[in-house]
Write a structure and sequence with these properties.
The protein is of the alpha+beta class. Among the domains are: 149 residues, Beta-Lactamase, CATH 3.30.450; 150 residues, Histidine kinase-like ATPase, C-terminal domain (Heat Shock Protein 90, 2-Layer Sandwich). The chain has a 5-stranded antiparallel β-sheet with strand order 4-3-7-6-5, with helices on one face. A 5-stranded mixed β-sheet has the order 9-11-12-14-13, covered by helices on one side. Helix 5 packs antiparallel against helix 6 and helix 9 runs antiparallel to helix 10. The radius of gyration is 50 Å and the shape is rod-shaped. The two termini are 48 Å apart.
Length: 460
């Protein structure tokens, strides 16, 4: 019992390359955005920090000592200037030596400021809002004074968003452009593979000519060479098979023909009461020879045989004229009017195979046409501009239901006369297939009969 496993969908080489490149490019985009963001945002953030440090130093400049007491000269107008900010809310606080609030917001806590050092900048929260604050420690005669100025981070976030947006768009465009260029490059890079695949796909199953290697990439050349070697082996095997069949045909036909001749001579010399037995042997030998010929013809016309080297221009009219005399004696013996209507029509094909096709069409028509009937073989160019060979008879005809089955090997319709092998039309089908021809069957008239036309492709 055969188990059928579902085939996994295979990725194309183009898709694999794009997938492999997409991950590094995406990672590169993330790293590039992070690096560009920091490179662009850090100077802006430093500028905001510098302004905040200037404010805390300016506020520290308003601290002085009066009578050993620390005081802050901060009129409302000056405080309003310090707190003014278009988008952010600002906070300030001045604390004395003991941490007492001298001015500003009581809930604003100072950062880790060191005496004699520039303002210390740090992040914190105020009233549930993120803030950035600058803390400055001022040494006075009454002790250290800590000054704090803070602001919310709205303008910083807004600047960061603008910078990020400005960075994302060009980076994304750059990555997409890179992907587009990579896709074009990959597509052009694997184009020779696609062309080679199309070339192999367009080939006939019987074409055993070498594969083209002109524009094949170096990575694929070993595969092409291996396939060419396989094709050479197949061609050698096909030629060996054809040679064997040709030798077998010759070795079998010669003794059978000699045996048939001897039986005919013997039948002529025997008394009448014994003659019928030898005649039966002669007829059986004749049928055996015909069967052997059909077997060999079927084998030589099969799809495993290579006939590419045998193709040459064949004029169908000449084919009919050269083989007409072969059938006149048999037609006369059965009182059948055998006619030929040759019209020019040239195709590329194997002449011996076309001769077999014509012979089996005529043999089939003569076999099923009753005495006194008519058989006509024609050639020419049809209305569809395709060369054809056609054989028409006025025999009993072929039921439409059996039009396809008559080409099966060894098939004979019920009630068929004679002792045929059922191989004649099978050979016709094989030869037609080898020449990419089509077969059409129709009734030859209202009274019955059959017309079989084989239409070939015009020459290129």
């Amino acid at each position: 019992m055969n188990s059928h496993r579902p085939e996994r969908s295979r990725q194309t080489l183009r898709r694999r390359l794009l997938v492999f490149l997409l991950a590094p490019l995406a990672a590169l985009l993330v790293v590039s955005l992070a690096a560009d963001y920091h490179i662009a945002f850090d100077p802006a953030n430093d500028a905001y920090d510098h302004a905040l440090a200037d404010d805390v130093v300016a506020l520290a400049g308003r601290v002085h000592v009066q009578r050993h007491a620390v005081a802050v000269d901060l009129p409302p107008a000056a405080e309003a200037v310090l707190r003014s900010n278009g988008r952010d809310q600002e906070f300030l606080a001045v604390r004395g030596p003991t941490g007492e609030l001298l001015a500003g917001d009581a809930n604003l806590k100072p950062g880790p400021a060191m005496p004699g050092q520039p303002p210390a900048l740090s992040d914190d929260s105020q009233g549930g809002k993120a803030i950035r604050k600058a803390s400055y420690r001022l040494e006075t005669s009454s002790g250290p004074v800590t000054v704090v100025v803070a602001e919310t981070t709205k303008k910083r976030k807004r600047a960061g968003s603008k910078i990020l947006a400005a960075m994302v768009a060009p980076n994304v465009v750059l990555i997409l452009a890179t992907l587009g260029l990579v896709y074009i490059g990959v597509r052009r890079g694997v184009a020779p593979l696609a062309e080679l695949s199309e070339e192999i796909g367009r080939r006939s199953p019987h074409d055993l000519s070498p594969l083209p290697t002109g524009d094949v990439p170096g990575e694929i050349e070993p595969l092409v060479n291996a396939m060419s070697t396989l094709i050479d082996d197949l061609q050698a095997a096909a030629m060996a098979q054809q040679s064997f069949l040709a030798n077998a045909a010759h070795q079998l036909k010669t003794p059978l023909a000699a045996l048939q001749t001897q039986l005919e001579l013997t039948a002529a010399e025997l008394p009448r009461e014994y003659r019928h037995r030898v005649v039966n042997l002669r007829d059986a030998t004749q049928r055996l020879g015909h069967l052997v010929h059909q077997f060999l013809a079927l084998a030589r016309s099969g799809p495993e045989a290579d006939i590419a080297h045998e193709r040459r221009p064949v004029n169908l009219a000449h084919l009919l004229q050269e083989n007409a005399s072969t059938w006149y004696d048999r037609a006369l013996a059965r009182d059948i009017d055998l006619g030929f209507e040759p019209e020019p029509g040239v195709i590329d094909g194997a002449e011996w195979l076309l001769r077999e096709l014509l012979a089996n069409l005529i043999d089939n028509a003569l076999k099923y046409t009753p005495a006194g009937g008519r058989v006509t073989a024609r050639s020419g160019i049809g209305e569809d501009d395709r060369p054809f060979i056609e054989v028409e008879d006025n025999g009993p005809g072929i039921p439409e239901a059996e039009h396809q089955r008559i080409f099966d090997r060894f098939y004979r319709a019920a009630g068929s006369p004679g002792s045929g092998s059922g191989l004649g039309l099978a050979i016709v089908k094989e030869v037609a297939d080898r020449h990419n021809a089509t077969i059409h069957i129709a009734a030859s008239g209202a009274g019955g009969g059959t017309r079989i036309r084989v239409s070939f492709l015009p020459r290129a």
